Amino acid sequence: MKIGKMQRRKDLRKIKGMVMEKISKFFLGISIMFISCNQKIEVKMATPALKIETNIKGEVQMVGYTVHDQKEGEWREYRNGALFSIRNYKNGVMHGKQTTYEVNSCKIIEEGQWEDGIPVGLWFFYQEGVLVSITEYKNENGQIEYHNPKFKYADEIPPPPN
Description:
Protein name: MORN repeat variant
Largest sheet: 9 strands, antiparallel
Structural class: alpha+beta
Oligomer: single chain
CATH class of the largest domain: Alpha Beta
Radius of gyration: 33 Å
Strand content: over 45%
Number of helices: 1
Strand order of the largest sheet: 1-2-3-4-5-6-7-8-9
Number of strands: 9
Shape: elongated
CATH topology of the largest domain: Outer Surface Protein A, domain 3
Number of domains: 2
CATH architecture of the largest domain: Alpha-Beta Complex
């Protein structure tokens, strides 16, 4: 009787082995079918990644976030270790507020808005912290619609055309 039980166990192991072999061949066949159909499922996560750009000396030049390898949101640009500008991006293109600073004094020298890479609306230009000119850009192609060059006092600034 012991020989019969041992034979049955061997037979069961053999059957299990054959079943497992067939199952693995089945799944291998399905895998090959999916690969041969060139159906790729690619999921891109919209997780922002911090990016720091440096120059040859290793000094930080720009800091901001990327999504799908494109600039997104606020980016800060540095020159000689000092903040030079803060720009906003959408899908890798300037979009939103931009502020530019004089590197040595940290005073604002330029403020304006971008829409899809085109300057729009009123842009303000300063020297030594004093407003010296205003430029208004049209939205379609970024052409200057209005420009008021240097003036001495803030009350001399004419309002932009309507």
